[in-house]
Design a protein that fits this description.
With 173 residues, this protein is α+β, with helices and mostly antiparallel strands. Helix content is 31%, strand content 26%. The chain has helices spanning 22-30, 43-60, 105-121, 135-143; strands at residues 7-8, 12-15, 64-69, 75-82, 91-96, 127-130, 147-154, 157-163. The strands form two sheets. It has a five-stranded antiparallel β-sheet. It has a three-stranded antiparallel β-sheet with strand order 6-8-7, covered by helices on one side. β3 and β4 (75-82) form a beta hairpin.
């Protein structure tokens, strides 16, 4: 059974997480950089997080993809739709691991995930919850054409809610 659709872009493969992804996933979540996406956390909690991602696919039919660099096969991060209990609506979420920033990979992955979500899951005009201190995510939201809609709170912390433009009809299928 294929739970997670595979999307290929010029440089990336968006796919489901695999057990062998744990080392890279846990390394990211052990770092201070993960503070914007629910970290830091230990290896056990990272495993729980990875299995929860796959569980969202099983329960909702959408979720986060593992972002794999096609040339190297290395796990570069995660991108996709997050919709936890307590979320106001589904979110386009994204993060890259150490060494993959600054090359346009997050933009490429987020555009592919956003378009797939609009066309195949009926999720268009998504939001992104962004910590006001997360300059990289704010810059990416702007590059994606998102606009600051309002200030809010998520999991007891202040955030900004950014609204993405409609994309379902923007690019021919």
């Amino acid at each position: 059974m294929t739970l997670v659709p595979v999307i290929e872009t010029e440089r990336l493969r968006l796919r489901g997480f695999r057990a062998e992804d744990l080392d890279a996933f846990a390394a990211f979540f052990a770092s201070e950089r993960s503070r914007f996406v629910g970290g830091p956390r230990d290896r056990r909690e990272s495993w729980r997080g990875m299995t929860a991602i796959m569980g969202q696919w099983a329960l909702l039919g959408y979720g986060l993809w593992a972002v794999e660099e096609r040339a190297s096969g290395a796990l570069a991060g995660a991108v996709g739709i997050v919709n936890h209990v307590g979320w106001e609506e589904p979110e386009l979420g994204y993060h890259l691991y150490d060494g993959f920033e600054g090359r346009g990979l997050a933009l490429e992955a987020a555009q592919a995930a956003r378009l797939h979500a609009a066309r195949h899951f009926g999720l268009d005009r998504l939001i992104s919850y962004i910590d006001p201190a997360n300059a990289r995510s704010l810059a990416l939201a702007r590059r994606l054409g998102a606009v600051h809609e309002r200030d809010g709170e998520l999991l007891g912390k202040p955030c900004q809610v950014w609204r993405h433009p409609a994309v379902a009809e923007a690019v021919p299928a």
